[in-house]
Write a structure and sequence with these properties.
2 helices; two-stranded antiparallel sheet; binds zinc ion; alpha+beta; 26% helix; 4 strands; 117 residues
């Protein structure tokens, strides 16, 4: 992949208390509420340089945070594809719920590496 095709997108920002907010943790309504709140209060800050934040949605439908004014900030880049996969992982975790006990997992088998007597 060519370097120029990588689109870095931040998924995290800080609120006025310094608490992290992750874009993929918010539901559609939560994102809209945060967007309205930030448009009035401008209380969100980028984790990299404390610049003001604007809330955006990528072409793949990923919600993310962006610098309100583009400066010369050198924050660690994440590609849109990486963030899309992260979002899928988080959503899958939410849907799967707590891990279930697998009854077959504890039974000894001949492939366990120990001799069967
Ligand atoms: Zn920054």
């Amino acid at each position: 992949m060519a370097e120029s095709s990588i689109i870095p997108i931040p998924l995290r920002c800080f609120d006025c208390n310094g608490s992290s907010i992750h874009a993929f943790d918010l539901s559609g309504d939560g994102w809209e509420a945060l967007l309205r709140e930030n448009s009035q209060a401008c209380h969100l800050r980028m984790p990299c340089c404390e610049a003001l934040v604007t809330l955006k949605r990528s072409r793949l439908g990923t919600n993310f945070f962006a610098h309100k004014a583009v400066g010369d900030c050198k924050w660690a880049p994440e590609t849109e594809e990486q963030l899309f996969l992260k979002r899928l992982a988080v959503e899958a975790g939410h849907q799967a719920g707590p891990p279930r006990q697998k009854s077959w997992a504890k039974q000894p088998t001949a492939s366990s590496g120990r001799p069967m007597y």
